[in-house]
Amino acid sequence: MINFIIDKNGNETFVHPPSFSLDSVYSDSNKNTPIIFVLSPGVDPYSQLEAFAREKKVELVPVSLGQGQAKKAKDKVNEGAKSGSWLYLANCHLSLGFLKDL
Question: For residues 95 and 66, is the Cβ–Cβ distance under 8 A?
Fold first, then answer.
């Protein structure tokens, strides 16, 4: 498949993921512009984000969405908006109704 894509595209642009830097993404965001990670199965940026939050001296609050966690997530969003902490919402695909509210 990789060879096919390179052959048809003429280069390797679409066969290698782009480089990723939390510093770069962070500089493009602000308190009104969240960072959204669209992940492949088995990928979890939490440890990277946790280290980055420590570096920035910001509290990182993880919430795993799913069964009955929408209320907790809403509360944590409101708390984070007041305190300046960061919220890491995991498994968003398990709570699509909450995402509409978000």
Answer: yes
Q: Are 58 and 82 in contact (CB under 8 A)?
A: no
User: What global pTM score does this model have?
Assistant: 0.74
Number of Cβ atoms within 10 Å of the Cβ of 57: 6
Return the closest-CA partner of residue 63 out of 53, 73, 74: 73
Span 26-82, pLDDT tens digits: 998 888 888 888 887 788 889 999 999 999 999 999 999 988 898 999 999 999 989
Half-sphere exposure of 50 (CA within 13 A, CB side): 7
- Rounded Cα gap, residues 14 and 8, in angstroms: 11
CA gap 8, 75 in Å, rounded: 49
Place of tokens 């048809």: 8
* Sequence-separated (6 or more) residues with CB below 8 Å from residue 26: 35, 52, 56
d(CA 7, CA 25): 31
14, two tokens: 């679409």
